[in-house]
Design a protein that fits this description.
The complex is a heterodimer.
Chain A lengths: L1 H16 L3 H13 L5 H10 L5 E2 L4 H14 L4 H11 L5 H7 L5 H7 L1 H15 L13 E4 L7 H7 L8 E8 L5 E5 L2 E3 L2 E5 L7 H13 L8 E5 L11
Parallel strand pairs in A: 6-7
Antiparallel strand pairs in A: 1-2, 2-3, 3-4, 5-6
Helix pairs in contact in A: 1-2, 1-3, 2-5, 4-8, 5-8, 7-8
Chain B lengths: L1 H18 L7 H16 L3 H14 L5 H8 L1 H4 L2 H5 L4 H16 L6
Helix pairs in contact in B: 1-2, 1-3, 1-4
Chain lengths: 241, 110
Amino acid sequence: MRGNLDAVKAHCDTARDTANPVAEFVGGVGEGLYGVAKETVAGAYFALTTNPVTTVRNVVRGVAGTIDAAIAAEETPARIQVSRAAGAVANASPRELGWATGSVAGNVALGAAPGAALGKVATLRRLRGTTSLTTYDSPQIGWVKENLGPETPATRYNDSAPGARPGQAPTLMRTMPDGSKRPVKFDGVQGEYVIDRKMKVVDAPRARAQLLRQSEVLPNMASLEHGRFLTPSRVSKPSSF
Amino acid sequence: MIATQIARIIADFMIFLELTDDEMLDPDEAVEMMELLGSRLDEIDKGFLRQLVDAFPVISLEYSGKSQEVVRNIPYSFYLEEALAANDPVKLAELEALRDAKGLNGGGEV
């Protein structure tokens, strides 16, 4: 874990030296959050959520401690990082701000322990005299095992969705009329969007019911208001869809 | 005819995916497999696909109730007539109009 934080810190140092360090800073850590290219951040996130079915909020305590260690280890004071991050997203919506601001490791923590990370950000903002903006908790995204079989075309297609985790599917919990909760699966997560990749659009009752479940679960998530469906080609995306 | 035999295999799996209870088969997993099935059907040689599409309403008579309905609707569910008319914009427009009309009438199934 410490090795991962050192690598993230090195990335932050590099971002400072570039012509537009703030944009690269936020963009770089954001990229790491989704595990696109930076195995360090994705590795830390993975280590914290080893259960097959869990919400990231379950690891609040451990990640909050990680944030503190990361901030303490940084050469740059955390308030400067916050200022830079806030500057980078000065024109962002409150939702985007809630996602993007925080310490270097806090960008991971925003997905894992929003209360801890945003609480620290709120404190530092007061120190700087900045206006407190409404921030939103990250959605409770659970991860369940994907059962399509390993190394199949469907698995490869779905696993290439933004924010996808191999062998697992992100889920949002839907509240049924009787009060019970059922998971609704997607393929990936990217910012305010949950992503569902469709190899083919199917117009059958069960497939339509899935679209309904997916659309119904989104309004319950304050910081996730969009779903995005991705298909391989325009031919497979008829207007009726 | 081999198209009839293949149509039966596809039909049996589509019935399983569409009609198995949610407690026995995760509905999201079922839809994922339907989408994969649909993409595989798109890859079939168009000449053979035509034979398959023509076979589904015929073999649907071997089933009953909801199963029969599922089998009869396979070409509709997977946009197979649209796949066959991929290079015919007039035909595609007709199919889209038919589909929209069925959708407005509720369910969109035949």
